[in-house]
What does this fold into?
Amino acid sequence: MDVTTWFEVEDPQEYDEEPWDFDEAELAFLAALRARAAVWQVPPAPSTVGRPEDEASLLVYVCLLDAERLVALGEWAVYFFGTYVRAGKVCDQLFNLHEPPERGSFRASGTVDELAQQCADWFESLLSRPVVRTEWTSKAGTAATRWEFADTDEALVVSGAIPADGSPPDRRLPVRP
It folds into this structure.
């Protein structure tokens, strides 16, 4: 995959904000993360680099999508603080991470290269997970839809009321291989 497709720097001037002023460690982290991402064998996903609201760290994130339905299934972020990172699933539009941390979240400290490698491995693992869309239909059409990781059945997004009687879905369609 082309390096330029992963972790593009968000342009804050689009929002009438000052340009980012990344320090040496942040630039090194981004370079190492992009180099690792260049060899990933995963389906593409939107990814961006910026700063959180408090501007205390570098923010790097990916978003899983159901491209056919144009539904965002979740965002996962890394906050890089120079000598340590916090990573996990995003819980809101400000890119705050779930507290307490969910399964799959992590904190780590180390060198810039060690942190970039650990974060790249974490993103690659996430992006490699298969996602399916399960659908329950009624006479009127689709009654409920649930997107989930196929390897664990962990729900990502639910739309509509899933039958309470435990009936199996009518369709199970791959979203991400």
